[in-house]
Write a structure and sequence with these properties.
Elements: E1 3-8, E2 12-18, E3 25-32, H1 36-49, E4 54-59, H2 69-82, E5 89-93, H3 97-107, H4 112-139
Parallel strand pairs: 1-4, 4-5
Antiparallel strand pairs: 1-2, 2-3
Helix pairs in contact: 3-4
Amino acid sequence: MKCIAFDIGDKRIGIAVSDPFGTMALPLETYFRKNFNKDIAYLCDIAKKNYAEVIVCGLPLNFDGTKSEQTLKTESFVEELKKHTEIPIVFEDERFTTMEARRILIEGNVRREDRKSVIDKVAASYILDGYLQKQKNKEN
């Protein structure tokens, strides 16, 4: 199953896709937000162009699992996104994904200036990987 993941932030949205078999998550791009309507249209279009059968959106919970202001913003955005696509949308806990992406980029000696442009798509790949692993575990 082909999947696409979005790490939705206030300024940027990280995008990752799975391989055609739904086994591996690959960072795709970082989308710099324009305005609400353009953002929704772009995300729907990229999901369609990548033949996504499922959209996985990161859910930014607090460390203790409670909702934050960012959680509510993300849920509201996703509710609007659902109105513009027929592709099923699911949430995946995104706690620690940005921290893990930052750690990997630092270990890879990616310069600080360059990390900002890639961290969101790397975080999206961690979100998608978490989802894919859960799907794989359900099959076993």
